[in-house]
Specification:
Length: 459
Protein backbone atom coordinates (compact mmCIF):
# COMPACT_ATOMS: atom_id res chain seq x y z
CA UNK A 1 0.00 0.00 0.00
CA UNK A 2 1.29 3.46 -0.80
CA UNK A 3 1.92 4.85 2.70
CA UNK A 4 3.19 8.16 1.31
CA UNK A 5 -0.41 9.04 0.45
CA UNK A 6 -1.54 8.65 4.04
CA UNK A 7 -1.66 11.90 6.02
CA UNK A 8 -0.49 11.98 9.63
CA UNK A 9 -3.33 12.47 12.11
CA UNK A 10 -4.57 15.94 13.10
CA UNK A 11 -1.51 18.16 13.04
CA UNK A 12 -1.80 20.51 10.18
CA UNK A 13 -3.61 22.81 11.81
CA UNK A 14 -2.13 26.15 11.09
CA UNK A 15 -3.92 28.00 8.29
CA UNK A 16 -2.84 31.39 9.54
CA UNK A 17 -0.01 32.28 11.89
CA UNK A 18 0.50 35.26 14.14
CA UNK A 19 3.71 36.62 12.66
CA UNK A 20 3.80 40.27 13.64
CA UNK A 21 7.51 40.62 12.99
CA UNK A 22 7.25 39.36 9.42
CA UNK A 23 3.88 40.81 8.46
CA UNK A 24 5.32 44.01 7.02
CA UNK A 25 7.84 42.04 4.98
CA UNK A 26 5.05 39.85 3.61
CA UNK A 27 3.04 42.90 2.55
CA UNK A 28 6.12 44.51 0.99
CA UNK A 29 6.60 41.42 -1.18
CA UNK A 30 2.97 41.51 -2.30
CA UNK A 31 3.07 45.23 -3.08
CA UNK A 32 5.98 44.72 -5.48
CA UNK A 33 3.54 42.81 -7.75
CA UNK A 34 6.21 40.20 -8.39
CA UNK A 35 4.61 36.77 -8.66
CA UNK A 36 7.81 34.88 -7.81
CA UNK A 37 8.12 36.89 -4.58
CA UNK A 38 4.51 36.80 -3.45
CA UNK A 39 3.19 33.44 -4.66
CA UNK A 40 3.94 31.71 -1.34
CA UNK A 41 3.04 34.58 0.93
CA UNK A 42 0.20 33.51 3.31
CA UNK A 43 -3.24 34.36 1.93
CA UNK A 44 -4.04 36.77 4.77
CA UNK A 45 -1.32 39.18 3.66
CA UNK A 46 -2.29 38.87 0.01
CA UNK A 47 -5.83 39.93 0.80
CA UNK A 48 -4.62 42.89 2.87
CA UNK A 49 -2.34 44.00 0.03
CA UNK A 50 -5.23 43.79 -2.45
CA UNK A 51 -7.24 45.87 0.00
CA UNK A 52 -4.63 48.61 -0.07
CA UNK A 53 -4.51 48.61 -3.86
CA UNK A 54 -8.30 48.60 -4.32
CA UNK A 55 -8.88 50.98 -1.40
CA UNK A 56 -11.21 48.69 0.52
CA UNK A 57 -13.10 50.01 3.48
CA UNK A 58 -12.50 48.23 6.80
CA UNK A 59 -15.79 46.37 6.40
CA UNK A 60 -14.90 45.28 2.85
CA UNK A 61 -11.51 43.98 3.99
CA UNK A 62 -12.96 42.03 6.92
CA UNK A 63 -15.68 40.60 4.69
CA UNK A 64 -13.12 39.46 2.13
CA UNK A 65 -10.97 37.80 4.83
CA UNK A 66 -13.95 35.90 6.18
CA UNK A 67 -15.04 34.81 2.71
CA UNK A 68 -11.72 32.97 2.44
CA UNK A 69 -12.10 31.30 5.83
CA UNK A 70 -9.80 33.74 7.64
CA UNK A 71 -10.63 35.77 10.73
CA UNK A 72 -11.39 39.47 10.76
CA UNK A 73 -8.56 41.84 11.65
CA UNK A 74 -7.70 41.34 15.30
CA UNK A 75 -7.40 44.65 17.18
CA UNK A 76 -5.61 43.10 20.18
CA UNK A 77 -2.67 42.28 17.93
CA UNK A 78 -0.55 45.45 17.64
CA UNK A 79 0.41 44.87 14.01
CA UNK A 80 -3.17 44.09 12.94
CA UNK A 81 -4.42 47.06 14.95
CA UNK A 82 -2.28 49.25 12.70
CA UNK A 83 -3.91 47.68 9.63
CA UNK A 84 -7.33 48.25 11.21
CA UNK A 85 -6.44 51.91 11.80
CA UNK A 86 -5.27 52.28 8.18
CA UNK A 87 -8.44 50.86 6.63
CA UNK A 88 -10.67 52.79 9.05
CA UNK A 89 -9.14 56.01 7.77
CA UNK A 90 -8.51 55.12 4.13
CA UNK A 91 -4.80 55.90 4.31
CA UNK A 92 -2.40 54.66 1.64
CA UNK A 93 0.08 51.83 1.96
CA UNK A 94 2.97 54.31 2.12
CA UNK A 95 1.24 56.31 4.85
CA UNK A 96 0.64 53.13 6.85
CA UNK A 97 4.24 52.07 6.30
CA UNK A 98 5.36 55.28 7.97
CA UNK A 99 3.79 54.04 11.21
CA UNK A 100 5.41 50.60 11.19
CA UNK A 101 8.64 51.43 13.02
CA UNK A 102 6.75 53.22 15.79
CA UNK A 103 4.34 50.30 16.17
CA UNK A 104 7.28 47.89 16.36
CA UNK A 105 8.89 49.98 19.10
CA UNK A 106 5.67 49.81 21.09
CA UNK A 107 5.43 46.06 20.45
CA UNK A 108 8.96 45.57 21.76
CA UNK A 109 7.85 47.17 25.02
CA UNK A 110 5.12 44.55 25.43
CA UNK A 111 6.07 42.33 28.35
CA UNK A 112 6.55 38.58 27.73
CA UNK A 113 3.50 36.42 28.28
CA UNK A 114 3.14 36.08 32.06
CA UNK A 115 -0.52 35.10 32.31
CA UNK A 116 -1.77 32.20 34.37
CA UNK A 117 -1.30 29.54 31.69
CA UNK A 118 2.26 30.53 30.82
CA UNK A 119 3.48 28.42 33.75
CA UNK A 120 5.33 25.17 33.12
CA UNK A 121 2.57 22.91 34.46
CA UNK A 122 -0.99 23.64 33.40
CA UNK A 123 -3.69 22.46 35.79
CA UNK A 124 -7.48 22.49 35.76
CA UNK A 125 -7.34 25.03 38.58
CA UNK A 126 -5.22 27.38 36.46
CA UNK A 127 -7.51 26.93 33.45
CA UNK A 128 -10.50 27.82 35.66
CA UNK A 129 -8.68 30.92 36.98
CA UNK A 130 -7.82 31.99 33.42
CA UNK A 131 -11.44 31.59 32.30
CA UNK A 132 -12.68 33.45 35.40
CA UNK A 133 -10.20 36.26 34.80
CA UNK A 134 -11.51 36.73 31.26
CA UNK A 135 -15.20 36.39 32.10
CA UNK A 136 -17.98 38.44 33.64
CA UNK A 137 -20.56 36.85 35.95
CA UNK A 138 -24.26 37.23 35.28
CA UNK A 139 -26.92 37.19 37.99
CA UNK A 140 -26.86 33.38 37.92
CA UNK A 141 -23.07 33.34 38.50
CA UNK A 142 -22.50 31.90 35.02
CA UNK A 143 -19.32 32.79 33.18
CA UNK A 144 -19.90 35.24 30.34
CA UNK A 145 -17.20 36.40 27.95
CA UNK A 146 -15.84 39.90 28.30
CA UNK A 147 -15.79 42.11 25.22
CA UNK A 148 -12.27 43.55 25.34
CA UNK A 149 -11.67 42.81 21.65
CA UNK A 150 -14.85 44.59 20.58
CA UNK A 151 -14.00 47.58 22.79
CA UNK A 152 -10.51 47.90 21.28
CA UNK A 153 -11.87 47.59 17.73
CA UNK A 154 -14.38 50.38 18.37
CA UNK A 155 -11.71 52.57 19.91
CA UNK A 156 -9.08 52.06 17.18
CA UNK A 157 -11.56 52.55 14.33
CA UNK A 158 -12.64 55.91 15.79
CA UNK A 159 -9.09 57.35 15.86
CA UNK A 160 -8.18 59.66 12.95
CA UNK A 161 -4.63 60.90 13.55
CA UNK A 162 -1.36 58.91 13.66
CA UNK A 163 -0.13 60.55 16.87
CA UNK A 164 -3.43 59.79 18.59
CA UNK A 165 -3.28 56.18 17.39
CA UNK A 166 0.25 55.63 18.70
CA UNK A 167 -0.63 57.27 22.02
CA UNK A 168 -3.62 54.92 22.32
CA UNK A 169 -1.38 51.88 21.75
CA UNK A 170 1.07 53.01 24.41
CA UNK A 171 -1.61 53.75 27.02
CA UNK A 172 -3.42 50.44 26.40
CA UNK A 173 -0.37 48.21 25.89
CA UNK A 174 -1.53 45.70 28.54
CA UNK A 175 -4.68 44.99 26.46
CA UNK A 176 -2.70 43.58 23.52
CA UNK A 177 -1.58 39.99 23.01
CA UNK A 178 0.32 37.84 20.54
CA UNK A 179 -2.59 35.50 19.78
CA UNK A 180 -6.36 35.80 19.46
CA UNK A 181 -7.34 35.72 23.10
CA UNK A 182 -11.02 35.33 22.35
CA UNK A 183 -10.42 32.04 20.52
CA UNK A 184 -8.06 30.88 23.24
CA UNK A 185 -10.65 31.84 25.87
CA UNK A 186 -13.39 29.68 24.32
CA UNK A 187 -10.92 26.81 23.81
CA UNK A 188 -10.04 26.92 27.52
CA UNK A 189 -13.64 27.44 28.65
CA UNK A 190 -14.92 24.34 26.88
CA UNK A 191 -11.81 22.36 27.92
CA UNK A 192 -12.54 23.31 31.54
CA UNK A 193 -16.05 21.85 31.39
CA UNK A 194 -14.71 18.77 29.54
CA UNK A 195 -12.25 18.08 32.37
CA UNK A 196 -14.81 18.82 35.08
CA UNK A 197 -17.13 16.19 33.57
CA UNK A 198 -14.36 13.60 33.90
CA UNK A 199 -13.97 14.32 37.61
CA UNK A 200 -17.73 14.40 38.19
CA UNK A 201 -18.17 11.03 36.44
CA UNK A 202 -15.45 9.41 38.54
CA UNK A 203 -16.83 10.71 41.83
CA UNK A 204 -20.37 9.66 40.92
CA UNK A 205 -19.34 6.08 40.11
CA UNK A 206 -16.93 5.83 43.05
CA UNK A 207 -19.61 7.03 45.49
CA UNK A 208 -21.96 4.28 44.30
CA UNK A 209 -19.29 1.59 44.71
CA UNK A 210 -19.66 0.36 41.12
CA UNK A 211 -16.28 -1.39 41.17
CA UNK A 212 -16.49 -3.04 37.74
CA UNK A 213 -16.72 0.43 36.12
CA UNK A 214 -13.90 2.03 38.11
CA UNK A 215 -11.16 0.74 35.80
CA UNK A 216 -12.78 2.36 32.76
CA UNK A 217 -13.33 5.62 34.58
CA UNK A 218 -9.73 5.55 35.90
CA UNK A 219 -8.61 5.45 32.27
CA UNK A 220 -10.67 8.60 31.77
CA UNK A 221 -8.66 10.27 34.56
CA UNK A 222 -5.32 9.54 32.87
CA UNK A 223 -5.40 13.08 31.47
CA UNK A 224 -4.59 14.19 35.05
CA UNK A 225 -0.98 13.31 35.77
CA UNK A 226 -0.64 11.23 38.93
CA UNK A 227 -4.34 10.32 38.94
CA UNK A 228 -3.50 6.71 39.88
CA UNK A 229 -2.90 7.93 43.45
CA UNK A 230 -6.64 8.57 43.75
CA UNK A 231 -7.39 4.85 43.61
CA UNK A 232 -4.67 3.89 46.09
CA UNK A 233 -5.54 6.46 48.75
CA UNK A 234 -8.50 6.94 51.06
CA UNK A 235 -9.35 10.53 50.16
CA UNK A 236 -12.78 12.06 50.49
CA UNK A 237 -14.62 13.27 47.40
CA UNK A 238 -13.61 16.85 48.18
CA UNK A 239 -9.95 15.83 48.56
CA UNK A 240 -10.04 13.87 45.29
CA UNK A 241 -11.50 16.84 43.43
CA UNK A 242 -8.90 19.20 44.87
CA UNK A 243 -6.08 16.77 44.09
CA UNK A 244 -7.14 16.35 40.45
CA UNK A 245 -7.80 20.07 39.93
CA UNK A 246 -4.22 20.79 41.06
CA UNK A 247 -2.66 17.96 38.97
CA UNK A 248 -0.87 18.77 35.72
CA UNK A 249 -2.89 18.23 32.56
CA UNK A 250 -1.31 15.82 30.06
CA UNK A 251 -1.47 17.50 26.65
CA UNK A 252 -0.36 14.21 25.11
CA UNK A 253 -3.38 12.37 26.51
CA UNK A 254 -5.66 15.23 25.48
CA UNK A 255 -4.29 14.98 21.93
CA UNK A 256 -4.88 11.21 21.92
CA UNK A 257 -8.45 11.63 23.13
CA UNK A 258 -9.10 14.23 20.45
CA UNK A 259 -7.91 11.73 17.83
CA UNK A 260 -9.92 8.94 19.39
CA UNK A 261 -13.10 11.02 19.23
CA UNK A 262 -13.19 11.11 15.44
CA UNK A 263 -10.10 12.28 13.60
CA UNK A 264 -8.25 8.99 13.56
CA UNK A 265 -10.86 7.76 11.13
CA UNK A 266 -10.88 10.94 9.06
CA UNK A 267 -7.11 10.74 8.62
CA UNK A 268 -7.39 7.49 6.66
CA UNK A 269 -7.30 7.86 2.91
CA UNK A 270 -10.12 6.39 0.87
CA UNK A 271 -8.30 3.14 0.02
CA UNK A 272 -7.62 2.48 3.70
CA UNK A 273 -11.30 3.06 4.47
CA UNK A 274 -12.34 0.56 1.78
CA UNK A 275 -9.94 -2.02 3.21
CA UNK A 276 -11.32 -1.54 6.71
CA UNK A 277 -14.83 -1.87 5.36
CA UNK A 278 -13.93 -5.06 3.44
CA UNK A 279 -12.84 -6.97 6.55
CA UNK A 280 -11.11 -10.35 6.03
CA UNK A 281 -9.57 -10.15 2.54
CA UNK A 282 -8.87 -13.88 2.39
CA UNK A 283 -12.58 -14.71 2.39
CA UNK A 284 -14.03 -12.02 0.14
CA UNK A 285 -16.74 -13.02 -2.35
CA UNK A 286 -15.54 -12.89 -6.01
CA UNK A 287 -17.68 -9.80 -6.71
CA UNK A 288 -16.04 -7.89 -3.85
CA UNK A 289 -12.56 -9.05 -4.89
CA UNK A 290 -13.13 -7.58 -8.33
CA UNK A 291 -14.33 -4.23 -6.93
CA UNK A 292 -11.46 -3.94 -4.45
CA UNK A 293 -8.85 -4.89 -7.07
CA UNK A 294 -10.21 -2.29 -9.49
CA UNK A 295 -10.11 0.32 -6.70
CA UNK A 296 -6.47 -0.59 -5.99
CA UNK A 297 -5.56 -0.12 -9.66
CA UNK A 298 -7.21 3.28 -9.57
CA UNK A 299 -5.37 4.09 -6.33
CA UNK A 300 -1.83 3.16 -7.42
CA UNK A 301 -0.37 2.34 -10.85
CA UNK A 302 1.82 -0.39 -9.35
CA UNK A 303 -1.28 -2.62 -9.28
CA UNK A 304 -2.20 -2.01 -12.93
CA UNK A 305 -0.63 -5.19 -14.35
CA UNK A 306 -1.49 -7.50 -11.46
CA UNK A 307 -4.25 -10.11 -11.46
CA UNK A 308 -7.11 -9.63 -8.99
CA UNK A 309 -5.94 -12.43 -6.70
CA UNK A 310 -2.38 -11.13 -6.63
CA UNK A 311 -3.59 -7.64 -5.68
CA UNK A 312 -5.66 -9.02 -2.80
CA UNK A 313 -2.64 -10.99 -1.58
CA UNK A 314 -0.42 -7.88 -1.61
CA UNK A 315 -3.06 -5.80 0.17
CA UNK A 316 -3.57 -8.47 2.82
CA UNK A 317 0.18 -8.65 3.48
CA UNK A 318 0.34 -4.87 3.80
CA UNK A 319 -2.51 -4.89 6.31
CA UNK A 320 -0.84 -7.64 8.33
CA UNK A 321 2.41 -5.68 8.46
CA UNK A 322 0.49 -2.60 9.53
CA UNK A 323 -1.13 -4.51 12.38
CA UNK A 324 2.29 -5.69 13.57
CA UNK A 325 3.54 -2.10 13.59
CA UNK A 326 0.55 -0.98 15.64
CA UNK A 327 1.06 -3.84 18.12
CA UNK A 328 4.74 -2.90 18.44
CA UNK A 329 3.93 0.72 19.15
CA UNK A 330 1.29 -0.20 21.72
CA UNK A 331 3.73 -2.45 23.59
CA UNK A 332 6.33 0.29 24.08
CA UNK A 333 6.36 2.80 26.91
CA UNK A 334 4.09 5.82 26.70
CA UNK A 335 6.72 8.12 25.23
CA UNK A 336 7.01 5.93 22.15
CA UNK A 337 3.37 5.08 21.49
CA UNK A 338 1.92 5.82 18.10
CA UNK A 339 0.13 9.00 18.97
CA UNK A 340 3.26 10.45 20.61
CA UNK A 341 5.91 9.43 18.12
CA UNK A 342 6.90 12.98 17.24
CA UNK A 343 4.98 14.83 20.00
CA UNK A 344 3.78 17.47 17.54
CA UNK A 345 0.13 17.21 18.54
CA UNK A 346 0.98 17.38 22.23
CA UNK A 347 3.21 20.42 21.77
CA UNK A 348 0.66 22.16 19.55
CA UNK A 349 -2.07 21.83 22.20
CA UNK A 350 0.32 23.12 24.85
CA UNK A 351 1.01 26.19 22.71
CA UNK A 352 -2.72 26.81 22.26
CA UNK A 353 -3.13 26.80 26.04
CA UNK A 354 -0.08 28.93 26.75
CA UNK A 355 -1.08 31.55 24.19
CA UNK A 356 1.91 31.20 21.86
CA UNK A 357 0.08 29.73 18.85
CA UNK A 358 -3.23 30.67 17.24
CA UNK A 359 -6.07 28.29 16.49
CA UNK A 360 -7.34 28.49 12.92
CA UNK A 361 -11.09 28.31 12.29
CA UNK A 362 -11.25 24.64 11.29
CA UNK A 363 -9.19 23.41 14.23
CA UNK A 364 -11.10 25.61 16.64
CA UNK A 365 -14.46 24.22 15.49
CA UNK A 366 -13.21 20.63 15.69
CA UNK A 367 -11.99 21.05 19.27
CA UNK A 368 -15.28 22.65 20.33
CA UNK A 369 -17.18 19.70 18.85
CA UNK A 370 -14.92 17.37 20.83
CA UNK A 371 -15.05 19.21 24.16
CA UNK A 372 -18.81 19.76 24.00
CA UNK A 373 -19.77 16.26 22.84
CA UNK A 374 -21.37 15.32 26.20
CA UNK A 375 -21.93 18.81 27.56
CA UNK A 376 -25.45 19.30 28.93
CA UNK A 377 -24.81 21.82 31.74
CA UNK A 378 -24.64 24.72 31.95
CA UNK A 379 -27.43 24.78 29.37
CA UNK A 380 -26.26 28.00 27.70
CA UNK A 381 -23.00 26.30 26.64
CA UNK A 382 -24.74 23.41 24.87
CA UNK A 383 -23.21 23.45 21.39
CA UNK A 384 -25.76 23.76 18.62
CA UNK A 385 -25.55 25.77 15.41
CA UNK A 386 -26.83 28.94 17.07
CA UNK A 387 -24.31 28.74 19.90
CA UNK A 388 -21.43 27.90 17.56
CA UNK A 389 -22.34 30.81 15.29
CA UNK A 390 -22.28 33.14 18.31
CA UNK A 391 -18.81 31.92 19.27
CA UNK A 392 -17.44 32.21 15.73
CA UNK A 393 -18.80 35.75 15.49
CA UNK A 394 -17.19 36.68 18.82
CA UNK A 395 -13.85 35.31 17.58
CA UNK A 396 -14.00 37.20 14.28
CA UNK A 397 -14.64 34.14 12.11
CA UNK A 398 -17.34 33.72 9.50
CA UNK A 399 -20.42 31.95 10.83
CA UNK A 400 -21.40 28.51 9.52
CA UNK A 401 -22.23 28.53 5.83
CA UNK A 402 -24.33 25.56 4.60
CA UNK A 403 -22.87 26.02 1.10
CA UNK A 404 -19.35 25.35 2.39
CA UNK A 405 -18.47 21.63 2.48
CA UNK A 406 -16.83 21.65 5.90
CA UNK A 407 -19.51 23.87 7.45
CA UNK A 408 -22.27 21.71 5.96
CA UNK A 409 -20.65 18.69 7.59
CA UNK A 410 -20.48 20.53 10.94
CA UNK A 411 -24.15 21.56 10.78
CA UNK A 412 -25.20 17.96 10.15
CA UNK A 413 -22.78 16.65 12.76
CA UNK A 414 -24.40 18.93 15.37
CA UNK A 415 -27.89 17.67 14.58
CA UNK A 416 -27.11 13.97 14.01
CA UNK A 417 -28.56 11.43 16.41
CA UNK A 418 -25.14 9.75 16.58
CA UNK A 419 -22.51 12.24 15.35
CA UNK A 420 -19.63 9.74 15.16
CA UNK A 421 -21.74 7.32 13.10
CA UNK A 422 -22.61 10.20 10.79
CA UNK A 423 -18.91 11.01 10.38
CA UNK A 424 -18.04 7.43 9.49
CA UNK A 425 -20.92 7.19 7.04
CA UNK A 426 -19.67 10.32 5.27
CA UNK A 427 -16.08 9.06 5.13
CA UNK A 428 -17.24 5.70 3.76
CA UNK A 429 -19.51 7.36 1.20
CA UNK A 430 -16.54 9.30 -0.15
CA UNK A 431 -14.34 6.18 -0.13
CA UNK A 432 -16.83 4.19 -2.22
CA UNK A 433 -16.57 6.99 -4.79
CA UNK A 434 -12.77 6.58 -4.60
CA UNK A 435 -12.34 10.02 -3.04
CA UNK A 436 -10.81 11.26 0.19
CA UNK A 437 -13.18 12.87 2.64
CA UNK A 438 -12.61 16.63 2.45
CA UNK A 439 -11.32 16.81 6.04
CA UNK A 440 -8.51 14.44 5.05
CA UNK A 441 -7.02 17.17 2.88
CA UNK A 442 -7.04 19.67 5.74
CA UNK A 443 -5.11 17.60 8.26
CA UNK A 444 -1.50 17.40 7.18
CA UNK A 445 1.61 17.35 9.38
CA UNK A 446 2.00 20.66 11.18
CA UNK A 447 5.19 22.44 12.03
CA UNK A 448 4.98 25.10 14.70
CA UNK A 449 8.53 25.87 15.72
CA UNK A 450 10.45 28.87 14.46
CA UNK A 451 12.64 27.01 11.98
CA UNK A 452 9.66 25.42 10.25
CA UNK A 453 7.72 28.69 10.20
CA UNK A 454 10.71 30.25 8.45
CA UNK A 455 10.62 27.54 5.80
CA UNK A 456 6.89 27.99 5.36
CA UNK A 457 7.38 31.67 4.63
CA UNK A 458 10.47 31.52 2.45
CA UNK A 459 10.25 28.26 0.51
Amino acid sequence: MNQSKKASVFDKIINELTLEDTGTEQLDQCMQFNYSLSRKVPLRYKIVSVGFVRKYTLNELNTKLQQYGLARLYPRNLWEASILYAFSNGITYDEWHGLVDSVKEIKDSLQPNTDLLSQKNITLKLIKEYVDENSDLDNKAELLTKHQTRRLETAVSSIHFPEEFLAFLRSNISEFSAVREKTRYYFCKYLYYYLERKIDSYLKIASRGIHYRLKDIMDELSIFQGASQVKRSSMTSEQIREFLECSSISCGVLYAEFNEFFFGYVSLDWMQVLLEQAGDLKNLPPKNIKKLADAARHYDKKYSKMEDAQIIKVLDAALEQQEKELDREASLDSFERGYQKNRMGENTIRKYLKGTLDLDRTTFICFLLFFASDLTTPARLYLNQKRLDEILHECGFLQLDPYNDFDYFVINFLTAGDPVDYLMEEVTRYAISMENFYLYKLYQASRSDDADIGKLLTS
